[in-house]
User: What shape does this take?
Amino acid sequence: MTASTNGDANYVIDGLQYCSWSETVFRQMRAGGVDAVHATIAYHEDFRETLGNILAWNRLFDQFPSLIMPGRSAEDVATARDTGRTAIFFGTQNCKPAEHDLELIEVLHLLGVRFMQLSYNSKCAWATGWVEEDQDEGVTETGRRAIAEMNRVGMVVDMSHSAERSTLDAIEQSSRPIAVSHANPSAWRATGRNKSDAVLKALGETGGMLGFSLYPRHLKDDSDCTLESFCEMAARTAEIMGAENLGIGSDLCQGQPDAVVRWMRSGVWEDEDTPTPDSVKGVGFPDQPDWFRTNADMPGIAAGLGAVGFSATETAGIMGNNWHRFFAYSFGPAEAREPAAAAAAG
Assistant: This one.
């Protein structure tokens, strides 16, 4: 597999962010030369709530047309780069926006959604989240049909928050390579959210993508993680699954209040009538490492990758060319595949 799909063109792409979106963040994207970002538009929201979030993004596109644009295809990344903007690709961190209707997968794709996780932290109708690893029975029958439909329309199966067996099942069952858009190797930082060498190997063998997370809870030494340690981890991961299957998925949540991380964990917003669940009391966002606080710091990662021995081509791949190639393969329709709904009916 080559590092780029467009000659000598190099791209900078972040495979996952959930910032408090603002002109400040968008200008930092431009300062960091970020050509595209996969932005989370839903965690626990149902279809109608997700539609509201898409409409909010449409207002941002109208408000800041010189800084951001909608992303639907790999070609949009090139357009964004050539016009000095950042293409925003929508993704959901749960299957809840599709509710229990697999036909909504195509509707969400038509609305611009290009990534969907089969599960978040808990067990759901399609797969099991990492928090409930001991209950992981793999991808469910409904989940298998959902994968087939996502493959058909051109929506990436993302298993960033899923448990081990569910993740391995998805890799095996998907007819297209899947993504783990934001995680790191568990051998480097032992947390249930990071991925085992078995998952990384299977992901690489099938052409899937791993986006390295910069969220401190996923980093060795948390907020004190050094750039050198991070880049040495990337070099080890390249030995397991190939540098061509690696990218950045920073999981940057810049500007979000602590109440947001508690909502991510529990699915419950804090208010006067809904006290904070005991399981998330005191939980908040940790400080970012000092070498990556905003999108403007992205060039420093490229320098760090080069310093630990990645070639210029490999570095350019990890910084964005690999994601660009993956987008080009993943986002178009698979004409020969039947909709999951029709298959289920048969």
Observations:
- Confidence is low (pLDDT under 50) at residues 1-7, 336-346.
